[in-house]
């Protein structure tokens, strides 16, 4: 069987798309649904900067067909990139180590990835509710056999 190739863009809210791709006057809240009629995948890059709230993730699911794929970009802390403390969920801000060498001293230290641990980062993603809808496991595994779902506590 041949592999399926999907074509999409790195965002559905990019300025160029907003100006030239969408029909004139289409409200911003309807752009993802329109995009999903044209493409079957998109990179969700906003998750690198901040984890979405549950209601936002639910709207994304409601606006896309079941076979639509969102490539979710890892939250910056997970990739050891500096993230402003205010970008963390509120209940984690006080315990997050800050890198005093950064401008303003308001960035979470790269060591936060180790101090929060990878499992804590997965919990952050889980709380954003991506995992409640259409979470596929790499390699075609499903249910209790899926290591990703097992890490997220879904299997």
Order of helices and strands: EHHEHEEHEHH
Largest β-sheet summary: 3 strands, parallel
**Number of structural units classed as domains:** 1
Task: Look at the helices and sheets and give the structural class.
Answer: alpha/beta
Number of strands: 5
Q: From the alpha carbons, calculate the radius of gyration and give it in angstroms.
A: 17 Å
Mean pLDDT: 74
Strand order of the largest sheet: 1-2-3
Low-confidence stretches: 131-135, 137-142, 147-155
What is the terminal-to-terminal distance?
A: 28 Å
State the share of residues found in helices, binned by percent: 25-40%
Strand content: 5-15%
- Number of helices in the DSSP assignment: 6
What coarse outline follows from CA principal-axis ratios?
A: elongated
Describe this structure in words.
- With 155 residues, this protein is of the alpha/beta class.
- The protein has one domain (8-151).
- 31% of the residues lie in helices and 9% in strands.
- It has 6 helices and 5 strands; from the N terminus they run βααβαββαβαα.
- It has a 3-stranded parallel β-sheet with strand order 1-2-3, with no helix packed on it. It has a two-stranded antiparallel ribbon with strand order 4-5.
- The protein is elongated.
- The protein starts with 7 loop residues before the first strand and ends with a helix.
- Mean pLDDT is 74; it is low at 131-135, 137-142 and 147-155.
């Amino acid at each position: 069987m041949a592999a399926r190739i999907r074509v999409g863009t790195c965002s559905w809210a990019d300025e160029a798309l907003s100006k030239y791709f969408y029909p004139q006057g289409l409200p911003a809240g309807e752009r993802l649904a329109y995009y999903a009629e044209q493409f079957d995948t998109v990179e969700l890059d906003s998750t690198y900067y901040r984890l979405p709230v549950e209601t936002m993730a639910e709207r994304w699911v409601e606006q896309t067909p079941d076979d639509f794929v969102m490539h979710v970009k890892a939250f910056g802390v997970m990739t050891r990139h500096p993230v402003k403390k205010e970008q963390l969920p509120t209940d984690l801000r006080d315990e997050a180590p800050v890198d005093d060498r950064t401008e303003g001293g308001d960035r979470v230290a790269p060591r936060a990835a180790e101090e929060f641990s990878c499992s804590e980062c997965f919990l952050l993603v889980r709380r954003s509710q991506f995992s409640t809808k259409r979470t596929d496991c790499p390699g075609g595994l499903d249910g209790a056999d899926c290591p990703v779902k097992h890490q997220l506590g879904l299997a």
